Amino acid sequence: MIASIDVDPQKTFTPLCPSELPVIEGDKIGPALNKQAEKAVFRVLTKDAHPANAVWVVDTPEEMLTPLDHPNADLTWVSHAVPGTEGFEIIPSLPAVTEYDHVIWKGVEPNLHPYGACFHDIQEKLSTGLIEWLAIKGVTTILVGGLATDYCVKTTALQLKQHGHFDVWVNLEACRGIAEETTIAACLEMSEAGIHVIQSLDEFSTM
Question: How far apart are CA 55 and CA 46, in angstroms?
Fold first, then answer.
């Protein structure tokens, strides 16, 4: 059984919201995510849902990526993906939230800033239920796409592989990364963990 996961394909991570965390071409991956979903029986959506008063929020991009002495918020970021704002919305051409088979909202607590969709906390103690839901549905193979390759996509894929023991495929055609260097490093880390990192669905096979 195959599942397709759209990881945080939200306007906050695209040029549509330039004052948040814009990823180049982040708003262009909708068609590739839809194509990926055609290979699957189940389609899952994950969304960042962060309060504006989170402990990691800073005012300017220059203040970002500063390490924090906090167990479940490791770096500073500008405010993003706040429910009720444009940045919280998903990018054009994707289905309505209610058309997905399962949805995960993450980062709702002001002192938690998880990257992966499988745990609410960075320490990976508090499950979101995603792994359990996939297991109950009989899923064995997972296609992953979304934003951004070097953060939430990478962490979600690693969690699915390490904790769920699924056959995980990251479809780069349906992803975009924040920076080239960290994206290359993320792809290497995923590959070393036994995840299939592919350039397009032409390389996908369940055989």
Answer: 22
65 Cβ contact list (under 8 Å, min separation 6): 75, 76, 77
Check if the beta carbon of residue 21 is closer than 8 Å to that of residue 83.
Answer: no
Task: Name every residue whose Cβ is closer than 8 Å to that of residue 138 and which is 6 or more positions away in sequence.
Answer: 1
The answer for 93, left when phi > 0, alpha when psi is -120 to 50, beta otherwise, is: left
Q: What CATH code is assigned to 2-203?
A: 3.40.50.850
> What three-state secondary structure class fits 44?
strand
**How far apart, in Å, are the Cα atoms of 107 and each of 52, 114, 201?**
11, 6, 30
Residue 150 and residue 74: Cα distance in Å, rounded? 15
Residue 203 CB neighbours (<10 A): 13
And the tokens for 183? 């994206």
Digits of tens for pLDDT over the chain (207 positions)? 999 999 999 999 999 999 999 999 999 999 999 999 999 999 999 999 999 999 999 999 999 889 999 999 999 999 999 999 999 999 999 999 999 999 999 999 999 999 999 999 999 999 999 999 999 999 999 999 999 999 999 999 999 999 998 999 999 999 999 999 999 999 999 999 999 999 999 999 875
Q: Which residues of 110-131 are buried (b: 16+ CB within 10 A; e: fewer)?
A: eebbbbbbbbbbbebeeebebb
